[in-house]
Prior knowledge:
The protein has 1091 residues and is of the alpha/beta class. 40% of the residues lie in helices and 12% in strands.
Amino acid sequence: MRAIRGAATRLLWRENEHFLLGRSRQIGAFPFDTSVFADDGGHVEKEVRDAAKVTALIAAFRTRGHLCARLDPLNRVQGGPWYGAAPEGLERSAERSLKDLLRGYQQHDGLNEKAQYVAKKIQLEVKTDGCRKFFVGPVMSGSDEQCNQYWNLPEIIERMAECYCGTLAVETEHLATQEQADWLVARVENRRQPKPVIKKETLQMLLNADMFERFLGEKFPGSKRFGVEGCESVLSGMRTIIQRCGEHGVSKVEIGIAHRGRLNILCNLLEKPLGAVCREMDGQQSQLHVGDVKYHLGRSGTLHYMSHEDGIPRSVKLSVAPNPSHLEAVNPVIVGMVRAQQQGLNDVARKKVMGLLVHGDAAFSGLGVVAETLQLSDVPGFTTGGVIHVVINNQIGFTTLPMHARSGPHATDVVKMISAPVLHANADDPEAVWEACTIAADWRAKFKKDIVIDIVGYRRFGHNELDNPVPNMPITYGLINKHPRVVDIYADQLKREGVISEEEFELWKKTVRAEFEKEWEEAERGTYAESVKDFLKTNWQGEALQELWAYEAPRIFHQEPTGLPIRTLQFVGSQICELGKDFKVHPDILKILKKRQKMILGPDSRVDWGMAEALAYGTLVLHRGIVPLHAEGQEYLDAAMGLNKGHYHVRLTGQDVERGTFNHRQAVYYDQATGGRCIKHNEIIPGQQDIVEIWNSPLSESAVMGFEYGYSLGARDRALVLWEAQFGDFANNAQVVIDQFLASGEEKWGQQSGLVLLLPHGYDGQGPDHSSARLERFLAVCNDDPDHLSGHNPATRKHISATFEAISKEYGGKITRQQAVDVFRAFRVEGVNGDSAEALDTLWTEMGLPEKAPLTKSAWESFMVQYIRRNAERDTNLFVVNATTPAQLFHVLRRQVNLPYKKPLILMSPKFLLHHGPCTSSLEDFSTGTFFNRVIDDGKVSDNTRHKAYLPGSSEEAFLLPADQIRRVIMCSGQIYYHLNAARRARRIRDVVFVRLEQICPFPHDRITAIVSQYKDAELVWCQEEPKNMGAWQFVKPRMDTAMRELCDSVGRKPRPVHYIGRASSAATATASYRIHQKETREIIDWALST
Length: 1091
């Protein structure tokens, strides 16, 4: 009979292996047809049903054990997540049967008593005692194949509870494949024990982390540091992740982390000197510029370690990115940086560079950017081969309890949507944290997917160290005040195990303290204070001196031209418009390609918006000196093609960017028979070009824009990176990225990004949510001074003066020529011949100083003001452009990578102009010698409608009257120009000129005054289609006043006022009625052209 029962359970195992591996939610589930077994009075059926119930019991541990695990270091609950002081019945885990089973099991003694208790709980039908064993196959046998495959109930309970309900728990039920679930189950049920050397390293890291927090708390009791006390195991866990990933071939880890624990990580993982942190804590790191608070700053470093696998010394480069207080906002930035570096290294396996994101529990479950970033994890255009997420789970959000902060049992439940596994570890068990981190590193290496480690601890103090949490959480903080620190808990464990002695541990503490005191003394001596030379290396005034050093060499701020020879344009254009015969493209695409081929026939051919963009991308990716293939053989095209010295990767993402929201781009083609994907830009000259990436993105603005911002940083000036909004209105979903990164990232952290935002903008009667890209909001965050010309604003003058005074103070009150040599040594330009004497001669000459005279404050100020005037756009934080011609688009995109410095470009792209007949440019406007025009003057060479500058029916008489007969100058920006121009020609109004402001910021005072001064007696007006409180008017008005004041002061005339023409102020951007929209547009045109 025993043999029969054994055969029955073995058959059950074979038929239902997946069930045993954790696919059941219910204890006692029995989905089997028992009629297949021989009937011996029903006994076999009972055996089979019992086996199924045991199977379900094992499955319950695997799928629901995490809801019973001992994760809270404070033991406020017997098992599972802690939600706060929740009344009975409000706990969200709803896991009763398994909890009750384990609670009751602990109250029974003896093998038989325990077995009988379990049998009763799971309702076994055959009498059961400690001798009855069940066949559970190889799953319960561990790694040893010779282990007994028959287990009694107490053995099963204790083994499963140890694996799934202890200080380490796992969630696998939501995983996408059985292979992934099997792999994790095998790892969790066969936990490894860390070697003694690993245990000692872990304790050393915990000691460093603990003493770091205590030291800062002692020295700076009145300063915030957002310590990691209560979750110190995060430090040892992160080190484990980095080392283990290094074993798998990772050479660089990009780390994103909020303020909690940042200072500790910077010092103990990236080796930032503690003395430097002390200067920051005391607010004395710089006397000239401090961009952001200490717990927002980033750093790069290298982690050196001895491999535990082969004993070979290894190292991994680390970089912690700066970030704002907007929690989790840095997540997509980090992922974008990783992707860019993988691209630069041609790391197609996504093995060499990885992302490590450290989250807070409340932020991870509460903020939408987390879910948006996770959604990118397996999307082809955005995947990085897996990000490892670490949650510092202190079980509180400022003062908000978990029960009020989320609806799910765990803070990590959001990751289930991407089928990422979750490992939960008790922060007071460093070895559980070590195991979780080791598993996570191995998971990424094997599956190239995201994984989450939830390190559950507590927060020893308030949200910051100055906050008192006791009034809101009296019971919890009563427990915390009595609770030992994890370093002491683990040290006692290792002493008991004989891994470390009391004397050795005390010596460690004395050594760490001595090192900290030494750093403190160095900080007190001013060792880590920023010197003036260090400051100048990161400031534009240093660039001014650096340019002097290189005065004989090509200018370090030289901008390459954007115009190209006609022949180059024709070659690129023909290559991207020709598809192979075997590629079956849609007939509509063929029509577009044939139309585009006609656009490059000759200098007078008219190029539309889509083709101009295609030409910009195609010419940026080509290597200089390419060798195109022709039917007659190879023909060498040298540098006369006008290509850049470098070549650039081009990346464009956003919703529907492959074809363009308005069907103007059509840059990605699909074979109508096979569905094959083709980007012709990548086939111009294979092997002699960079690549063009064009990816439709998920329906997300914040994460995707943040990703591309990070990509632009990671690409290191070797890529044109663009993000396009479906409609410009939707960009405000990413307002945090715009405000905290694009607009202020350089000033706060020194991060230079060349990201381009393409924002469809224009009033076409499509309603308040499809009309405006909110131009005014971008202009509002620009640092362009409305009341002073470049170099004249008080802030710049004050900055220049403060810099000179700091230099003078450092050198005893004055700066001689010899002392200036010392300053110049900080700016030696690699590869430039010349010496400091030559540069000093130039500097002293430009400052008008006698040869032996010291450098004076007035001379310094004069030189720097002249520099900032010559490089007026260098100090801007954003370029804001509203281009109105295809040629302007071509030039501004090429200028974006040709500039000697990187700035984000906010490009108001049109909508109806994309297919508007008059909105074309001649191919000649793309040719050598042409460039981006910040301002377009009516009828001049930059005007794309100049070919219609004659009276209708005449080829000689100019349409416009001479400048002295012009009565009104209408300044405008964007597509309103085409409405105005069409009406002017139709009405034959010849005494009104249009001046198109293409670059709104930095405001082109010089070009505006030069153009307006031609029309000395004309009235000046600004015309826009946006409401008065929106658009560019509020930005343009004060700057025009300043420009006119400066212009008129120079010629002794009274400044002319600038008047407004446009829609009235409005709360909404536009009307929802197309008829009202048309009426409003006609009124604007009539008003602008009226006499």
